[in-house]
Amino acid sequence: MSGSATEQLSRVEARVSELPDRLQSHINRARIVGRELSELFGADAQRVDLAIAGHDLYRAATDEELLDAANRRGITPGRLEREQPLLLHGPLAAIWMADEGRIADKEVLDAVQHHTTFAPGLGVIAASVFLADKLDPDKIERRPWLVTVDQLARSGNWKAAVKAYIQALDAELKEQGVTPHPLAQQAYDTL
Ligand SMILES: [Fe+2]
Ligand SMILES: [Fe+2]
């Protein structure tokens, strides 16, 4: 770990300030939800907030930029990542947070890496980040099925909320002919 938690957050926030306005607004809304969920779930609010601040550092990158960045960072994209390069935006953000952000907190880095799909073995920090990202009020407006996930989260049951999200997304993706991510399925099975 390098520098205080405040310094780590400042480095991430400086990078966030370079992102498009719309993305910054989403990050700000997710950070507010993250504070609420941290309290409900008994998660460390500061670590959750740091992860949410950095989770979408690569969300505005193009497919080509994501694949190039992965290549430079030594990530070999699998078939799913080549089909959907956006899947790389969490892993790349986690690498940025570790290298440029000088953050060594593995739970924070794992939460950022897996914020899109979730993954088996993750705990309450990652669940708070995952759910805060999905329960951005603007997203709930666009996807009415998120209301159920929100209710489960607000009841304090993060496992049920994560499972409900994965299940509903799986149905939505299948309807669109998109392959659901195996990590999401594995996470569902272990929760
Ligand atoms: Fe994201
Ligand atoms: Fe996000």
- Radius of gyration of CA atoms, rounded to a whole number: 16 Å
Query: What top-tier CATH class of the domain at 5-136 fits best?
Result: Mainly Alpha
Q: Overall 3D geometry?
A: globular
Structural class: mainly alpha
Outline of the structure:
This protein has twelve helices and no strands.
General description of the model:
- This protein is mainly alpha-helical and 191 residues long.
- The protein has a domain at 5-136: Hypothetical protein af1432, CATH 1.10.3210.
- It contains twelve helices and no strands.
- α3 (45-54) crosses α7 (106-113) and α6 (89-99) runs antiparallel to α7.
- The longest helix has 21 residues, at 21-41.
- It is globular, with a radius of gyration of 16 Å.
- The relative contact order is 0.13.
- The mean pLDDT is 96.
- One fe (ii) ion binds at residues 55-56, 59, 89, 115-116, 133.
- One fe (ii) ion (FE2) binds at residues 55-56, 59, 89, 115-116, 133.
What's the layout of helices and strands?
Elements (H helix, E strand, L loop, with lengths): L4 H12 L4 H21 L3 H10 L8 H10 L6 H5 L5 H11 L6 H8 L10 H11 L2 H6 L3 H9 L3 H19 L5 H9 L1
Helix pairs in contact: 1-3, 2-3, 2-8, 3-7, 3-8, 6-7, 7-8, 8-11, 10-11, 11-12
Characteristic key phrases:
191 residues; 12 helices; 0% strand; binds fe (ii) ion
